[in-house]
Fold:
Amino acid sequence: MYDEPHKLEDYLATELQCSCGHKHYVPIRAVEIAPGAIRTLPDYTRKFGYAHPYIVCDEITHRIAGEKCATLLHEAGVESRTLILKHTGFDEATLGEIVLNLPEDCDVMIGVGTGSITDMIRFSSYKLKLPCFTVATGAPMDGFAASIGIMNVNNLKKTMQAHTTELIIGDTDILKTAPYRMTVAGFGDLIGKITCQNDWELGRIINGEHYCKNIADLVKDCLAHVLEIAPRIKDRDPDALGDVMNGLVLSGASISLYGNSRPASGAEHHMSHYWETVMEQRGMQHAMHGEQVAVGTVLVLMLIEELLQKEIDFDRARDFVKRFDRKRWEEEIRRTYGTAADEVIEIENSAGKNTPENCLRRIDSMQQHWQEICEQLKTMPSAEYLMNLLKEIGCPYLPSAIGIDAATLKDTFLYCKEVRARYTVFQTVYDLGLLDELSDGVQLRLNRIEEKA
Ligand SMILES: [Zn+2]
Ligand SMILES: [Zn+2]
Structure:
């Protein structure tokens, strides 16, 4: 039992009983993030008892790191086999190519790349009942420590059950050669933890949700540090890149630690999920996940600022939620979500987020805890501060910069909360009957910013 914060290292392959009542554990055995970290690969391979690694990369990641992995292993007396993928759709064909080329004696698979390849290796090795390692060539999101893998099945992005990698190597000498946009996206995914941690706090205060202070603090401390070093990212300072990579691993690991994505995903992620869903249906190219999350974080902070300026009328809120028109809501979900509507309606059917009964219960709780809620909301940095920071490092911070027009944004504010059952600040503002009005306030502010630019 402990009540003191632990570092991520303490949790690796070690189960800790926490004062929150849960046991926390990450199945990852080692994380090496440093200049020259790739040189630790042969040692870990032997230490973990493997002798026949199968390296999977594409042409680019082979050049960047795959070749080096094979050479280092060879020099250490470990003979590996390498597959340079020709089918890079990260779909059934890619999976087939990996399996077709799998050496008989393979005892560990090594994915060399960023999201797509490492996801594919976590999934395929899981299916093949083989352990896997990850060698990162860039860090655009926090999926490295995940236990799921995303791949295309029947031309649709699908989240597949996978297992976690045993080893994560983030060699900062390699990471600094990654396209800058990728690094910025990784940073964007990380700063989303600002609003996501706020959502968890609101869930705890308003909804009586389970909360783990130790995990929350782990993520918050890491976030505070990353915000501090952020200006050095643009110089590709290897220490700063290492800190971002560390943060991304930690953020992903917090999902394993907690057992669901509560510590790493909130309202800003719901915005990103919504944008991906609708833009794909419109045949539009969407921005990178981390860029969307960065913009979402700014928007959520703006909404919070609007909320803090408002005098709250709880009785008016009660009247508002009692008027919930389920039929009209469903029509709106069909209009905004298109082919994804059935799934979204199914979520509401089982979660009942918008039923008057649940809304009224939360309004009572808000009225009782309003002071505490405001204090929590006031811990948020200002949208202005974050926009300036994002601008400085060259990350998009306005919806227009990532292809989101005013009409889509309005729908996003009103309906993105329906994409998951998870409680976020969007539900808080909805329950208060203010989502429509305050999102108009955010739009006016955006208009003023655009005019000035
Ligand atoms: Zn993310
Ligand atoms: Zn805990």
Observations:
- The longest strand covers residues 108-113.
- The chain has two domains: 1-264, 266-453.
- Residues 188 and 392 are 13 Å apart (CA to CA).
